[in-house]
Amino acid sequence: MQPVHVAAYVKELQGKASAPTVKQRLAALRMLFDWLVTGQVIAVNPAHAVRGPKHSVKKGKTPVLSAAEVRELLDAIETDSLIGLRDRALIGLMVYTFARVGAVLKMRVEDYFVQERRGWVRLHEKGGKLHSLPCHHNLEDWLDEYLSAAGIENDRQGPLFRTAADRSGRALTKNALYQQDAYRMIRRRALAAGIKTEIGCHTFRATGITAYLKNGGRLEIAQQMANHESARTTGLYDRRGDDVSLDEVEKIGI
Fold it and tell me: 61-90 pLDDT, tens per residue?
């Protein structure tokens, strides 16, 4: 394949797909041809000379909540039931650690542990990477209450967050909670708390990062906590500018 063929493919694709999709597919082609060059199947990478469409993202699209809304959501969860304690601990973990829901749902009971007299969590990130960090004191309390009520402290190899055994929610199975179940739970909890924003699991990652930065946190530390490769990626979750925009809009005295 020649560069002209790759360029023609990209041009044709631009008429059918969005700029991010085109850039992603072009990147995949470059990686494929790099592998072929390394294996001496072809001499040069024909995709290196082809330019993709211009596309720059400075702000993510993930819906976020204010700190007050998150508190309302968490306070609305009943704590006299096992499922309520589980849901509060799960949401709190995503808020206070900036964790992806996939990393949280892969956790085992042993991934919540004590170190230096403080609770820590070990997250199972993409690519099998492990990422550990200390718990906020609220999160530590919520995890302790959940584990005590669930009675699973000794099942160290079992999943931390589990499905309900029946509709009563008084007992848990030995099966890990599915991501779609977590999403439905979050939507149900938001509706019960009167939150109209169409939030999802990733909302708490963006919300936690924004709240941290608003309170004087540093972007490079937020990057480490979120386990991002680049601070630019972390910056996409920073929604402090939304408050400025809202304040300015309210100055329109009509």
Answer: 778 898 899 999 999 999 999 999 999 999
CA–CA separation, 152 and 111 (whole Å): 13
| Tokens representing residue 153 in the block | 């402290």
Contacts of 245 (CB under 8 A, 6+ apart): none
The vertex-233 CA angle with 227 and 235, nearest 5°, equals 105
Return the CATH architecture of domain 1-56.
Answer: Orthogonal Bundle (1.10)
Cα(221)–Cα(234) distance, rounded to whole angstroms? 10
Prediction pTM value: 0.73
Q: Where are the domains of the chain?
A: 1-56, 70-197
DSSP for residue 159: B
DSSP SS3 for 150 = helix
CA 228 – CA 230 distance, rounded (Å): 5
